[in-house]
Description:
Layout: E1 15-19, E2 23-24, E3 30-31, E4 34-41, E5 51-55, E6 84-85, E7 90-91, E8 96-100, E9 115-116, E10 121-122, H1 132-146, E11 153-157, H2 159-170, E12 177-181, H3 189-203, H4 221-235, H5 238-244, H6 263-276, H7 281-293, H8 304-307, E13 314-320, H9 328-340, E14 345-350, H10 364-375
Subunit structure: Homodimer.
EC number: 2.3.1.46
GO molecular function: homoserine O-acetyltransferase activity; homoserine O-succinyltransferase activity
Amino acid sequence: MNDVLPGSVGLVRPQTFHSAAPLPLKSGAVLPEFTLVYETYGMLNADASNAVLVCHALSGNHHVAGYTDAADQEGTLGWWDNLVGPGKPLDTNKFFVVGVNNLGGCYGSSGPNTVNQKTGKLYGADFPVVTVEDWVNSQARLADHLGVQSWAAVVGGSLGGMQALQWTLSYPERLQHAVIVASAPKLTAQNIAFNEVARQAILTDPEFYGGHYYEQGVVPARGLKLARMLGHITYLSDDQMAEKFGRSLKDGALKYSYETDFQIESYLRYQGEKFSGYFDANTYLLTTKALDYFDPAESTGGNLDAALASAQADFLLVAFTTDWRFSPERSREIMTALVHNGRRVSYAEIDSVHGHDSFLMDDAQYHAVLRTYFEEVVL
Length: 379
């Protein structure tokens, strides 16, 4: 076995939580039972006061930190390994960190590619639509299973940040801090539009088969590839694309055809191909719908101040200057509403060239903000 990478939580293995109790969903549907796959890092202390829940974004999963293959440590690192580990900003010497794959996911939690016990077949398109509220309710059951009455913090970037915000509303007494990174109180019309175009790419793929492509032994790879290419464009900033690719040619000369001429074209095709090889199309549809539906202020006539009145946690909000998909203005909306409710709020706006993807990067200023905040969390 290779030596453990510096600051790594080391080799990790997923765990499984099964709830036999029915889970009512916001749509009115009911899951008769469900399973969540999760990982943990660090040790839960005696009074279970040091637990931190990490919520993932659209294509994320439970594998937040560490590696899953001792022979290929760097190749199997968790998606937020630069943040979570011993001595890292979210320090596992202090905190017991939990990463979970959401309902509807495609990494072992109950979702379209798992078996419907009623039929004995994979759910496919029959898996019910789930929302951020439903995810939080299922995560609360996982917390019960782990013996965690109150999270020291719930943390997430992008869609994960929406889950952290929803935790403060659904279970205000069950978390002390909410760390919301590169997120928003709801999607703009433009963001909903991007999601709809991505869904149509999948839904109109001839190999989608109404969501039951598993039975056909195929994958709607073309649609999923296009969805990912579109999404990836929105995760990057124009400056970053210009700096990284510009108008560089893939093969040194124009082909005067519809093949890839430019490096950016080749990059997007590569990202799309790779994504279509490991992610599930039905999960992509479900997750983008959960993004679209999230709107805590819907029940208060659009009044975000009123919607966040029940929150009790302290907050850290982080935004990035070049993130045009979830712009800093959206984080400031949350901050303003919380201040109007007398909540303790810290806000950081980080200069970064990486666009929306900034929340995943190993940025010194960004990590310093998170480290300082977590160091001040009293257990």
